[in-house]
Amino acid sequence: MGAGQSTAHAHIPSKALHVLRVTPSSPASETDIEPFFDFVVGFEGDSLSPEHIDASQLEKIVESHEDRVLNLLVWNSKNQRTRVVPVVPSRSWSQPHLNANNAQPSLLGLSMRMCEPETATENVWHVLDVLEGSPAESAGLVPMGDWILGWSGGVLSAENDFYDLVEAHVDKPLRVYVYSYDFDTLREVVLIPNRHWGGEGLLGCIFGFGLLHRIPPQPEDRVPGSIPPELQEEEEEFEEQQLFVPADVQTDNWQGQEDAHQHVAQPTPTRTQGGSLMNGNSELQ
Fold it and tell me: Where is the composition biased (Acidic residues) (predicted)?
C-alpha cells in the first residue's frame, strides 16, 4: 500500500499523534509511514481539525474499519505536508505472536504518543565529528550527515537526556535511531560506550544540539530514500582516486553559542551551569 496525494499544510499542527515505531509485518509496515517524522492528524472524512485531534475517537474509527481500508491523514515534519495514507486495520497479522495473557493484538502496528509536533522534532543530536578507532566510528556514524533522533526506549525530551543515557550504558549496547540526511533514511545503530577504546570520551564523537543543528528540510524534488546525484558522482571519484577527505569541522565556531553546544561523553563528567558535559576543565567538549 502506498500513500495518496499530499498537500501543503498551512501551518504546523498544534497537536498530533507522533509515530515512534512501526512493527514489522504489521498493516502499518506495508505503508510509507516513517517513525519520528510522521504525525497522524486525523482520518479522511474527519470533521475535527488537526488542532482538536481526539485519540480515543481515532481508536474507535480504527476498530470500526477492521479489515477495511482506512485513509489516515499523516503530516510529515520533513516536507511540512499532509498526505493520505491508506491502511487496512487487522488483527490476523499478530495472531501467531499472541502470548498466554491473551493481550489484544494491535490493529495497525503503530506505537504513537500525543504531542506538539512543533517541539517534538527539536530534540536531535547532530554528529559533527567522529574520532578514529572510537565506538562511534565502529558503529558507522557519519560526521555532518547523521542525526540521532531517539533510542530503543523511546524519544528523548531534553539535551542532557542523551548524555545521561550514554553514561548509563557504559560497556553495554545502546540502540539508537539515526537519520541520514544524505540518503534520507532512518536506521538503527548499536553504540557501546566505553572508557578503554584508547581515546577521549565514552563515544569519541562530538555532537551539536540546538537551533543551528536541527535537521534541514529536504529539497522538494527529492525522492525519499534516493541517493542525490552529487553524492553518486563524488563516490565514484573517491573510488577511482583512492582519496580520503576528513570532515572539515572547526569546533571553535560553535563554542560560546547558546544553541550550538558540542559534547563528548567523558568518563568522569561534571555538569556546568549551562548543562554541558565537562571533564574538569574550561574547554567545551
Answer: 231-240
